[in-house]
Amino acid sequence: MDPLVAAASVLAAALGIGIATIGPALAQGNAAGKAVEGIARQPEAEGKIRGTLLLCLAFMESLTIYGLVIALVLLFANPFA
After folding, report:
1. Considering Cα of 4, then 10, then 13, then 19, what sign does the dihedral take?
2. For residue 16, what are the contacts with CB-CB under 8 A and spacing of at least 6?
3. What is the 3-state secondary structure (H, E, C) of 15-81?
4. Is the pLDDT of residue 7 over 70?
5. Cβ distance 21 to 64 under 8 Å?
6. What per-residue confidence (pLDDT) applies to 80?
7. Quick check: 32 pLDDT over 80?
8. In the predicted model, is pLDDT for residue 9 greater than 90?
9. Residue 6 gets which letter from DSSP?
10. Is residue 81 very low, low, confident or very high in pLDDT (cuts 50, 70, 90)?
């Protein structure tokens, strides 16, 4: 493999996983904070808030995993072989 292509793949994978984790990380922190605030305001709705929070966190985490998959494809899939 050409060293330039290898270096570009590593750089693209690093940028891709870095960018893919920023959005979900901020959103997860915001969602958790709002859920704690909602539970503090209405303790009787804790079960519904917690269930919704966990579902939303799972969807947000899947976005990060998609970024990881794309980064791994950039690193290990060699279209020039």
Report:
1. negative
2. 67, 70, 71, 74
3. HHHHHHHHHHHHHHHHHHHHHHHHHHHCHHHHHHHHHHHHHHHHHHHHHHHHHHHHHHHHHHCCCCC
4. yes
5. yes
6. 62
7. yes
8. no
9. H
10. low
d(CA 43, CA 49): 10
Domains present along the chain, CATH in parentheses = 3-76 (1.20.20.10)
d(CA 79, CA 5): 10
Question: Taking Cα atoms as reference points, which of 16, 10, 31, 14 lies closest to residue 63?
Answer: 16
How far apart are alpha carbons 72 and 67 in whole angstroms? Answer: 9
Structure tokens at 34: 């709002």
Cβ atoms of 1 and 79 within 8 Å: the answer is no
Give the predicted TM-score (pTM) of the model.
0.75
Q: How far apart, in whole angstroms, are the C-alpha atoms of residue 11 and residue 14? A: 5
- Tell me which amino acid residue 80 is: F
